[in-house]
Amino acid sequence: SVPPYPPGGLSSPTGLITATISSPNFSSNVTASDQVIFQQPPAITWATPAPIVYGTALSATQLDATSPLPGSFAYSPGAGTVLAVGQQTLKTTFTPTDTVDYTTSTASVTLTVLPAIPVVAITAAPNPGVQSNPVTLTATVSSGGTTPTGTVAFFDGSTQIGSGTLAGGIATFTTSALTAGQHSITGVYSGDVSYTGATSSAMAETVEDFTLTTVGGGTSMNATATTGGQEATYPLVITPVGGATLAGPVSLSLTGLPPGATATFTPATVAAFSATTNVPLLVMVHGISDRKSTRL
């Protein structure tokens, strides 16, 4: 039987070559013949692959050429290769099992590699934070391919508050301008040659404050010491604002004391995560003989 051949190929893999020699010195011509095999390139069928997203390794889904003859395919680039974004050429060489009747054959197709969409995640430290204190926002841009490059813009609601340049897939921005209350922070990635832009989910950042008042809500009060060695006590209270507890420690100090007076807060530092806390202030007046008044 005669195996199949591509269109335009020879009608048969074999043929007969005959040579005839004529000579006036001989009474008849001399004829010789030999059987010759005409090798054919095998047919290859390879449909254009569907586009893939950057970061997808080549597999049998793209490297799926076929031939009606038994044999093996060698692909370039091979399975497992991650191609850059753009139009990429895939090539294959088919080696038939029957190398007597057939030669090797080659084919190629074009594969479109599309930019990938990375994942953007936002964190903040500290959270909750304290008003007027620095808060650092961190954006991590992750993907299945090379490390993304570019920038991340940080938004508080719909207002951009800063940006950072990616290094190793991470961008940071530090601000002390967040007001007390709840903030909805998002990060918007710019994209690069391999990745499209992307936006993170919103992250809730709580910024807290506190008030320092006297017991009962006042902001000032007087106390009088009549002789040296007397004490003046101020019943102070620290109250968290924007949360049930303090986001960070609060340290207390006092300036403007009368000459010869000393002051003591109890405690001198209110620990982080404390609720409303009473902090009595004791002022000791030393070495006076006349009535003196101190005012907070």
Please tag this protein with its features:
rod-shaped; 296 residues; mainly beta
Task: Describe, in short, the structure shown.
It contains no helices and 22 strands. It has about 300 residues and is an all-beta fold. The N terminus and C terminus are likely disordered.
Explain the overall architecture.
The protein is mostly beta strands and 296 residues long. Helix content is 0%, strand content 48%. It is built from no helices and 22 strands. The protein has strands at 14-21, 30-37, 52-53, 71-76, 86-96, 105-114, 119-125, 129-130, 135-142, 151-156, 159-165, 170-175, 181-189, 198-199, 203-214, 222-225, 231-241, 250-251, 261-265, 269-270, 277-285, 292-295. Strands 8, 10, 11, 13, 14, 15, 17, 19 and 21 form a nine-stranded mixed β-sheet that branches. Strands 3-6-5-4 form a four-stranded mixed β-sheet, with no helix packed on it. Strands 7-9-12 form a three-stranded antiparallel β-sheet, with no helix packed on it. β10 and β11 (159-165) form a beta hairpin. The radius of gyration is 43 Å and the shape is rod-shaped.
